[in-house]
């Protein structure tokens, strides 16, 4: 690539869930040039990235950053946080359970002083998402899971739902809507939906290029320094650099670039260019509890992803969004229970209740200026002052026990094996559930938007990094607070919205065209 070819109007760093959307949409305008820089390879010829039923096969494998946490004060210290380094990012290996942004979540952002993200403004952006989202097809609905859903609806008095995203709701039970094509089971990753087969002279995709730092010139982002096959390469941006590296790696990149909390940067030996104490703070995730039963009889393997259904409900009457969201998997994920000593029989089934609106706040930070060094993660799960998260974790299991007594689910069960029927008091339940909770891989909120004058806001309401110009963040890290339900629909919506914000800010008139790699290089 020539020197001239290293200059673009926009550089998007991170070709993951949000980054693919931003790069694809911006490059729809032929008068601008866009460069998407992704640390991993293309997903186009990776068979495991095709059928969504194979979602788990890439976890903890060669594309997975597989981040660990520091020792946890009140939660599980053994969580493995999957982050996929491949085009499409986590949308290339997740289960794509997708929700239209909930009004209550967006109202909460408004109450935090974030402007321009009201439900009426944001909901139409969900309809722009080009990644197909469909209710789990009748042919993919497992009969055993259907029995569990029916029992949950009647035991807990929840409205049964065949669809979710065409209405506003706070409660319900049913098969989910997921990002897939029911006819082929192909996943709706954002790479597949927005980039595969796209050939545009103004779109350059640079793969296997780890961005080390954003280059600032008098607080203006003017480019990025990358490592491609160990070689340093500089890319220049005329208009903007957009960081879309996800909730762990976006704050890490800002910190390596001299933007972040001074004590962290000092300790890592990095000069502070913009002191922003909120970078890496405010980390949120959905802590997921587990209840396992010995099962009776056989179950068929029919499914879309194996995590196709569940129920969501409020516990506190005043809540505007669900307080607990429970997944009903076909195959359990019981590694933490087994590590804790639980004996799980071969024939078993489980429910996984999530704390939907976590109040605990964690943190991510770097300890080194090396771009490939894993950032430190501290979830600080169950450290909220009022103990609400712990209460919801326990309540999720108690509600699941009620469902287990209800037909047509009860006949599938022999007995509860984890936490076990003998574990009854709040104290006992809390201890075992906190030690074994799983992540739902929904880490978010570490570069959050916030009001002017909010000392921990990293971004303004238009996703611009405070104190810098020409620099935005667009991914799961920007959320001021985590959505009650699975966030990927919201992340894609944020990306669609970001494109309008970026275009609106652009100077009028065409710019010189560059861009010398077309489509996705092999
Ligand atoms: C196993 C799993 C299952 C999940 N299931 C669901 C679900 O069913 N529903 C749901 O709502 N959510 C789900 N999630 C969460 C959801 O996938 C994420 O919230 C979402 O995809 C995050 O998108 P993102 O754009 O923030 O980051 P990502 O999609 O992670 O993208 C970040 C990209 O940046 C790249 N990158 C990072 N650092 C650099 C760098 N320095 N230089 C260049 N590139 C870089 C990465 O390689 C990656 O491609 C799941 C996640 C996982 C892991």
Task: Characterise this structure.
By secondary structure, this protein is α+β, with helices and mostly antiparallel strands. The chain has a single domain, classed as 3-Layer(bba) Sandwich (FAD/NAD(P)-binding domain), CATH 3.50.50.60. Helix content is 22%, strand content 20%. It has 11 helices and 22 strands. Strands 1, 2, 6, 7, 8, 9 and 22 form a 7-stranded mixed sheet that branches. The chain has a 6-stranded antiparallel sheet with strand order 4-15-16-17-14-20. α1 links the parallel β1 and β2. α3 packs across α11. The protein is globular, with a radius of gyration of 22 Å. Bound molecules: flavin-adenine dinucleotide. Flavin-adenine dinucleotide binds next to α1, β7, α6 and α11.
Task: Give the uncertain stretches in residue-range form.
Answer: 509-522
- Overall geometry comes to globular
SS field, number of helical segments: 11
Please name the CATH architecture. Answer: 3-Layer(bba) Sandwich
Total beta strand runs: 22
Radius of gyration: 22 Å
Average pLDDT, all residues: 95
How would a textbook summarize the main sheet?
7 strands, mixed
Head-to-tail CA distance between termini: 16 Å
Helix-strand category: alpha+beta
What's the multimeric state?
single chain
Tally of distinct domains:
1
The CATH superfamily is known as FAD/NAD(P)-binding domain
Topology of this protein?
Layout: E1 7-13, H1 17-26, E2 34-37, H2 103-111, H3 119-128, E3 134-135, H4 143-156, E4 172-175, E5 177-178, H5 190-194, E6 203-206, E7 209-217, E8 220-228, E9 231-243, H6 246-256, E10 259-260, H7 262-268, E11 274-275, E12 281-283, E13 287-288, E14 291-295, E15 309-313, E16 324-328, H8 335-339, E17 348-355, E18 362-365, E19 376-378, H9 388-404, E20 413-418, H10 426-436, E21 438-439, E22 471-473, H11 488-505
Parallel strand pairs: 1-2, 1-9, 2-6, 9-22, 10-11
Antiparallel strand pairs: 3-5, 4-15, 7-8, 8-9, 12-18, 13-21, 14-17, 14-20, 15-16, 16-17, 18-19
The structure holds flavin-adenine dinucleotide.
